[in-house]
Amino acid sequence: MPRYDFDMFTIGAGSGGVASSRRAGSYGARVAVCEESRVGGTCVIRGCVPKKLLVYGAQFADAFADAAGFGWTVPVPSFDWPALIDAKDREIERLSQIYRNMLKNSSVELIEGRGLLVDPHTVEVNGRTYTADKILIAAGSHPTVPDVPGIQHVISSNEALDLAELPRRIVIVGGGYIAVEFAGIFNGFGAEVVELIRREELLYGFDNDIRIALAQEMRGRGIEIHARTQVARIEKRDHGYSVYTAIGQEFSAEVVMYATGRKPNTKGLGLPEIGVKTADNGAVVVDEWSCSNVSNIYAVGDVTDRINLTPVAITEGRAVAETLFNNNPIKMDHANVPSAVFSQPPIGAVGLTEEQARRQFGEIDVYCARFKPMKNTLSGREERTVMKLVVDARSDRVLGCHMLGPDAPEILQGLAIAVKCGVSKRMFDETVGIHPSAAEEFVTMREKTVRPTKLAAE
Ligand code: NDP
């Protein structure tokens, strides 16, 4: 008789939990996963996937507008928001079902309900207890909003994906990934968008040239961005809401959306009761093996608040399964994780920003190209693409690649492999370009951007 009901019990059937459970199942481990919501987690149900579908929808606005320059006559297009939301919902349902089938095909038992840790080897779901040798916490995260008077009136990205009607005017608070992506979505569908950010620039943590260029392009598309703006209160009006700032400005809108960060889903899981250490924001504290301070309890993905991206959760989850059930110890390498922002235009980035590189390496070379993509010549679109390489002046190693412009996420994925391999600038120079493409600019940048190489770190 096995000592426990399962070899591993996973709490949360999102990207990290499903990837880890399936990999463990493929090695013959007896695995169960519990899920209180729909199978698929934030990414599939209320994050990356539905967001990207809306991004695709919004981008048609550009295609219609640009077509005239290429000889097309496009009748005034009309747009049906409920039709898009219905189509998106059907696709999400299909994907959730695929996730269920994938669990089943990997012999992972799905238990529907919220998991509560009773002791380090026991999880309770719907009043029934299950024991397991290892526990994996992959419970994800949820949107958080600050405590501002009237905050009960606002929506988060969860509701923004399911609005019954397209708002004619929306105020979005926040300057991170989610805020800029939704600003682009609503703007693409023709809504008036006002974005309120508390810093000078959007997207803290991204390269400054890219942040500044994105704000310019967003403003060029008609999005109002108000920097250094703090919200003081939100009031309900007959038709919508008024957002008042700390200096007394008023912005009215039909919908007010907050995208001010996310918090790990650890409340009510029973972690302090069984001695699992959490950080101030509730994140499970883990070591490089994703192991908590309780030796049989592991955690991956947003619940650990390391790099909160789906592919990172998947890589962490698979590493845990390899380590525990395949005698193949793997630690995830969190360096040089590429990421993208599906803003309009989008961003792709890998490695260090210029500012980070200066701080860490002192002497760096910077190569920057800013140009009008070929498509924009005939379309008349004024938007510029920005590409940037950050290079260690001593070793010639490329420390960071950054791009703002069409297809940036697609282009950066390939460059991320090169950066991971330790590519030098010379290897970029020796690579033959693909012509005519925007991407070829990355291998034809010869002139260093004239900037002092030893600026004080910001
Ligand atoms: P982010 O942490 O990216 O951004 C939060 C934004 O809200 C920042 O601009 C922050 O400002 C601002 N903010 C925080 N608190 C307040 C406050 N009290 N008042 C006003 N502004 C505030 O969080 P998001 O919610 O945008 O996204 C959450 C995570 O989801 C991301 O970190 C990312 O990991 C992931 N994600 C990834 C995507 C992708 O890969 N394309 C897409 C969407 C989400 P400040 O900079 O001053 O702190």
Please state the overall shape, judged from the principal axes of the Cα atoms. globular
**Rg, Å, rounded:** 24 Å
How many H/I helical runs? 12
- Class of secondary structure makeup: alpha/beta
Q: pLDDT under 50 segments (min length 5)?
A: none
Ligands bound to this protein structure? NADPH dihydro-nicotinamide-adenine-dinucleotide phosphate
Please give the largest β-sheet.
7 strands, mixed
Average pLDDT level: 96
Seen as an oligomer or otherwise, the chain set is single chain
Number of strands: 21
Characterise the protein shown here.
With 458 residues, the protein is an alpha/beta fold. It has helices at 15-26, 41-46, 48-67, 81-105, 157-160, 177-188, 208-220, 310-325, 354-361, 375-379, 408-420, 425-430; strands at residues 6-11, 31-35, 108-112, 115-119, 122-125, 128-137, 141-143, 169-173, 192-196, 224-226, 231-237, 240-245, 250-253, 255-258, 262-264, 297-299, 339-341, 347-351, 364-371, 385-392, 398-404. The strands form five sheets. Strands 1, 2, 3, 4, 5, 6 and 16 form a seven-stranded mixed β-sheet that branches. A five-stranded antiparallel β-sheet has the order 17-18-21-20-19, sandwiched between helices. A four-stranded parallel β-sheet has the order 10-9-8-14. Strand 20 (385-392) and strand 21 form a beta hairpin. Helix 1 packs parallel to helix 8 (310-325), helix 3 crosses helix 4 (81-105) and helix 3 crosses helix 6 (177-188). Bound molecules: NADPH dihydro-nicotinamide-adenine-dinucleotide phosphate. NADPH dihydro-nicotinamide-adenine-dinucleotide phosphate (NDP) binds next to helix 6 and strand 17.
